[in-house]
From TrEMBL:
<feature type="signal peptide">
    <location>
        <begin position="1"/>
        <end position="17"/>
    </location>
</feature>
<keyword id="KW-0813">Transport</keyword>
<feature type="region of interest" description="Disordered">
    <location>
        <begin position="99"/>
        <end position="120"/>
    </location>
</feature>
<keyword id="KW-0406">Ion transport</keyword>
<protein>
    <recommendedName>
        <fullName>High-affinity zinc uptake system protein ZnuA</fullName>
    </recommendedName>
</protein>
<dbReference type="InterPro" id="IPR006127">
    <property type="entry name" value="ZnuA-like"/>
</dbReference>
<comment type="similarity">
    <text>Belongs to the bacterial solute-binding protein 9 family.</text>
</comment>
<dbReference type="InterPro" id="IPR050492">
    <property type="entry name" value="Bact_metal-bind_prot9"/>
</dbReference>
<keyword id="KW-0864">Zinc transport</keyword>
<dbReference type="Pfam" id="PF01297">
    <property type="entry name" value="ZnuA"/>
</dbReference>
<keyword id="KW-0862">Zinc</keyword>
<keyword id="KW-0732">Signal</keyword>
């Protein structure tokens, strides 16, 4: 009889579990820090999938409709979700809910008069555009990679805690305790990352994807520019020549690619230059989605960046 009683409590708890769905892995990592001890947040886009040009499948529609809480950045990143989530009672679009900090969270828009040129300057940085392919995504005037700033990460955790507490008041104390733990561990991790990157702050580098504005500003480690080239196809000779010239002019130590870029693309860009190559993953593809995942993600990003800039590997 006692066993049946506890079994009943177990199934009641399962029935009342909040169904949380996140769009991209870094948001799942933050959500799982708050849901720790209960049902983990699910992920809509498989790790490594770009949210910029994703096409929804019928199974995705079911998952969205069944979710009690859908956590996404907003139409600035997952534009494909805007029609679906406009009237979804569980939608939590984060970008416009974040309070501004002491740095700029907007990028200067590209000068349209330079659209057909290989090279131009964007807010003081060198930007190399692959002429042969103009289908690259654009973020508009706002950088949607909000999870790369620890200040934003804490606000995201607070917003998730508020929503979960309203949806599942029986577990309010657990959510609040998890938030307190997240805040304390975030502060410690932020200090570790800052210390890791400090010796590399005067080193020049370029990135393949203009995704790191929040990270660069928070840790005072700005890039010299970025390349807008196709991950699948090596850039043409004219684009490569422009990239090589930019790398030499900027005395770039490193070029940071991302997991989706093929080796041929990366090799074409750096061949014949002094720049070393390393990989950064702003989508936390290989990070385990547990309650400490966000902190592991930050530390790995810092270590991968510093190791190349300081020529440690």
């Amino acid at each position: 009889m006692r066993a049946l009683f506890f079994l009943g409590l177990f199934f009641a708890g399962q029935a009342n579990a909040v169904n949380v769905l996140t769009t991209v892995k870094p948001l799942q990592l933050i959500a799982n820090a708050i849901t720790d001890g209960g049902e983990s947040a699910a992920l809509l886009l498989k790790p490594g999938t770009s949210p910029h040009d994703y096409a929804l499948k019928p199974s995705d529609l079911h998952r969205i409709n069944d979710a009690d809480l859908v956590i996404w950045v907003g139409p600035e990143l997952e534009q494909f979700l805007e029609p679906l989530l406009k009237d979804h009672s569980g939608s939590l679009a984060l970008m416009n809910r974040l309070s501004p900090h002491d740095h700029h969270d907007e990028h200067e828009p590209h000068d349209e008069h330079h659209h057909d040129e290989d090279k131009h300057h964007d807010n003081g940085k060198i930007v190399i555009t692959q002429q042969e392919d103009h289908h690259d995504h654009h973020h508009g005037s706002r950088d949607p990679h909000i999870w790369l700033d620890p200040h934003n990460a804490l606000q995201i955790a607070e917003l998730i805690t508020q929503r979960l507490s309203a949806l599942d008041s029986a577990n309010l104390d657990r959510y609040q305790q998890n938030l307190a733990r997240f805040e304390a561990k975030l502060a410690a991790t932020d200090q570790q990352v800052s210390a890791r990157l400090a010796p590399a702050r005067d080193k020049g580098y370029f990135v393949f994807h203009d995704a790191y504005g929040y990270w660069e500003q928070h840790y005072h480690i700005p890039s010299r520019g970025h390349f807008t080239v196709s991950p699948e196809r090596a850039p043409g000779a004219k684009t490569v020549a422009s990239i090589h010239e930019a790398l030499k002019q900027a005395n770039a130590e490193c070029v940071f690619a991302e997991p989706q870029f093929r080796p041929a693309v990366v090799n074409a860009v750096v061949r014949g230059t002094q720049a070393r190559v390393a990989e950064l993953d702003p989508l936390a593809t290989a990070v385990k989605p547990d309650s400490d995942g966000y902190f592991h993600f930050m530390l790995k990003l810092a270590d991968d960046m510093a190791a190349c800039l300081l020529n440690e590997r």
